[in-house]
Every structure is written in C-alpha cells, then in structure tokens.
Amino acid sequence: MRVAVIGQGYVGLTGAVALAHQGHHVTGVEQDPDRLRVLDAGRAPVFEPGLPEQLAAAQATGRLHFSGSVTESHRRTPFDIVLVTVGTPPAPDGSADLTQVTSVLDEVLQLLPAPCVVLKSTVPPGTSAVLAETYPGLRERFAYNPEFLNQGSALEDWSVPARIVAGTWGETGLRALRELYEGIAAPWVETTPSGAEMIKYASNAFLATKISFANEVAGMCCGPDIDVDHVMQGVGFDPRIGHAFLQPGLGYGDSCLPKDTNALAHWASTAGLPTPLLRATIAVNDAQFGLAVQLLRTELGDGPAGGLADAEIAVLGVRYEPWSDDLRAAPSRTVVPALLGQGARVRVWDPGTDTDAVAALFPGARPAAGLTEAVEGAHAVVVLTEWPQAIEADWRALAALLYEPRLVIDGKNCLSPEQMAALPVRYRSIGTRLPASAVSGRSGPAAGARGAEPAPGAAVRSRPPEPPPSSPEPPSLPEPPSLPEPPPLPDR
Fold first, then answer.
1. Whole-angstrom Cα distance, residue 322 to residue 463?
2. Catalytic residue annotation
3. Whole-number Cα distances in Å, 313 to 129, 292, 395, 398, 434
4. Which of 152, 172, 175, 433 sits CB 3.0–4.6 Å from 323 for a disulfide?
5. What's 202's DSSP letter?
C-alpha cells in the first residue's frame, strides 16, 4: 500500500518506520520545517531506543520518504490510506484539544482520488462520530485505530502488538486496516469507532490506576518489617494482576497517562457520569508528586522553610524514564520548582539532557555536568530517574561527598537497600524496603527505618525483586543523545 502518516512525532515516526519495514511505501508528512530537515537528514527528532538505526535502514530501502505536504505528495502518486497521528494536547480545562486533528482532516478530505482515513490520535469517545457528521463522505472510508506503544519498546510494540483495535462503520475501513497490518499476528478487536476510542482511554486509565494503587499500598508499607518490594512481587505473581505497572514511585509522569486520565475525567464530567475511582487515581498521583518535598522537609528538620531554606539538594534525573525524552509530566517539573520556591539551593544532573536545557527548564537551579559535581557538598540527594549511571554508581564514594544529614531519597525505588544500609546515609524510599539481612532474621537495621545506622558487610541485592520470567524484560538503554534544548512535545 501507499501510506501517508501525518505527524512525525513519537507515534507517527515509529509507525512510518515500522510500516516501511513491513513493505509499504510510506511518506511521513511533517509541517514543522525544522523537524522535516532533521528527518530528511536521516535523524530522529524524538528519542526511542533503536529508532535512529531503523529509520536509516527504512530510508535505505527507498520505501520511506518525508514531505511537508500531503496534498503535493498525493498529487504525484495517490495514497491508498492516510494515517493521522497528530497531537491532541490538553486544553486549559483538561479536555483534549482537537485543533490539529480537524486541521488535517480539512486538507485530507480534499484529496482525489479519496484515500481511506485512519485516525490514531487519542480522542474522547464519540469524537469520530462527530467528525463523520461534520465531514460528509468520511464515514464509509474511516477507521479509528488507537496505538498502544510503550516508550522504550515502541518499534516492537508496533510489530508485535498485544492487540489491534479496529473501530469502523463499514467494510471499506476494515479492509484497509486488514491490508495495512497484513503479516502481523495479533488478536483483533472489531468494534465501533466510539468503542475503540473508549478502549484507548480505558486502557490508559487502568494502567494509571495500577500505579496509584501501588503508591497507595507503598504508603501503608511503613512498618519496620514490611518490604514494599516483596509485597508488590507477591501481588504481581497473581496472573489476574501481573507485575507490570506495580512499581511504586513519585507517580505516573509519561506523555500519555496524565493527559489521558484528565481528558477522560473531563469527558465523563461533561456527560454527567460520575467517576470516583478515576478521580481517586488522579488525586493519589497528584499527591505523590509532592512526596519527595514532604520527605525532605521532614528529614531536614525544623529550620526556616521547614529545613529547606539554604539546604543544598542534588536532584538526579530530569526525565520520567531514561528511555523517554518527554518531560511534560515528569516529577522533576514539580519537585525542582517546589524546592527552589522554598529556598533550597538545587543542583540538577541528567546524563541525557544538555546542561543548557536543564538551565532553561529550571531557572534558579544549577546544572551539574557530572554525578560527582551534583552530589558533592549536598545535604540531600533525590533520585527522580532510574539512570543506570546512578544505580551503578559507587555510592560509598558519593556518600563521603555528602554533608549531614546525608539524606538519600529514592523516588524510583531503584537503589539497592543493602548498599544503602551499609553506608553512613539516611535512606528513604517509597514505602519501606528492607535489606536481605533484616528479612532473613540476621541482625542489621532496615533500610527504610528512620535514622538507620550503617551495617557493614550486608549482603547486596542489586535490584528490586524481578517479575516472573513470562513478563517482558525492560529494554536495554543505549547511550542517550544530548538535548541542546527542552525536547519537543511528541504527537500522541
């Protein structure tokens, strides 16, 4: 098939590359001239492991090209199908802004001969029905086909999807999707466009709920003999539950879950539908963002501004995840300004983000080029991203650089509680995490206990308990690119 993919953000570029490797002839349409120049040069404007290499390989086949105009490209060689993958960012009231979607449809529906139109952008339930009423002739050649890509494994998720959801009103749209995904083995869910829209929102709302549930349970794992890692491991082994998205932390902060949960709640509210569980999920997450600041205020004492005034705080990590350059809802966007606003002196380190970009993101904070520079002379360290460089660092050497009270707040529960218990630091995690010696009954303090003293010789458990073998392994992380400026917002 000849395929146009409009919007070369995270979803659109991943899809364009994957479709070209499937054998389709693909044109990625991008109106941003700067992004288009980057694409024409064979570089990926978004960060995703493996994407730059697969982009170059797809271009080398001659089946992937980029253009600034779908109309001009269609005039030269008509497309069989057009995929719409532009952004639907949150409006001030929390609803989804559909301006980019309607702008694209205004142009696409003028194309002759008329291609099939597949909307992949995340939109509220009922949006496709409204579009079909607005644009006569769209209904029979339309499909809503949501994406379910995970940052860090997007190419694999496209090629080996857990399911393909096809929301159509007629055979034309369904046949187009069948041909588009020919050769891909996955369960199909055939439904209406409104049903497909709800599947997308409900899926993300459920994942968000699992994260908020894990964080609420972590708050209850506060005793000296309850290990939150063991609790989540034991819960996740139940096949009805699973381990995915049960890792406690400072809340969900990727490019989708905050936006989509708020948009779904707004849609339900306008429809007069109560959503107490969804509202609770959002409320737990919002409160979780402030947990790091609350822990700092508690642990640093009763000085001015609750002990934060003039305290030196090292923040390790700007991104929500190492394999994503999306910062829209990353915990750092809340934590760092809050610390600065309460008088703390903050230095920020992130190996995947240029120091100039850090300075632009957090005026008043001091960018640190290296881990040692960030930690030296700090009263407290806050880990916000599970960078391998931080997890595998020599924490004995780093602890020696800290000033009292030598506080380490592990906002991602990614550091070793054994290692922390063996160091002269005050370690705080999201929920109590016990060293193996405490669990086995040998003497030694619990890493999550307040004011724990060093326990030399404690056995080392390098990472939290692993999920069962059937769960997918997290992707290996290539050396992250340097970002000269705050990253662009990817299209969803």
1. 16
2. 256
3. 51, 11, 16, 14, 25
4. 152
5. H
Query: Which phi and psi angles does 396 have, rounded to 5°?
Result: -65, -40
Kind and range of the H or E element at 367? strand 366-367
Quote the tokens at residue 36: 């288009």
Q: pTM of this prediction?
A: 0.87
Per-residue confidence band for 439, with pLDDT thresholds at 50, 70 and 90: low
Q: How far apart are CA 322 and CA 474, in angstroms?
A: 11
Q: Is 8 strand, coil or helix?
A: coil
Strand (E) or helix (H) holding 101? helix 99-108
Q: pLDDT tens digits for 33-50?
A: 999 999 999 999 998 999
Whole-angstrom Cα distance, residue 179 to residue 151? 26
**How does DSSP assign 417-464, residue by residue?**
HHHHHTTTSEEEESS----HHHHHT-S---TTSTTPPP-TTPPP--SS
What is the spatial distance between Cα 481 and Cα 46, in angstroms, rounded to a whole number? Answer: 10
| pLDDT over 90, % of the chain | 82
Among candidates 379, 168, 127, 357, which has minimal Cα distance to 263?
127
pLDDT in tens, 342-352: 999 999 999 99
CA-based R_g, the chain, Å = 24
- The amino acid present at 4, given as its one-letter code, is A
Do residues 38 and 8 make contact, with C-beta atoms less than 8 angstroms apart?
Answer: no
What is the token pair recorded at 19? 């479709």
Phi then psi for residue 95, to 5 deg, are: -75, 170
End-to-end CA, the chain: 23
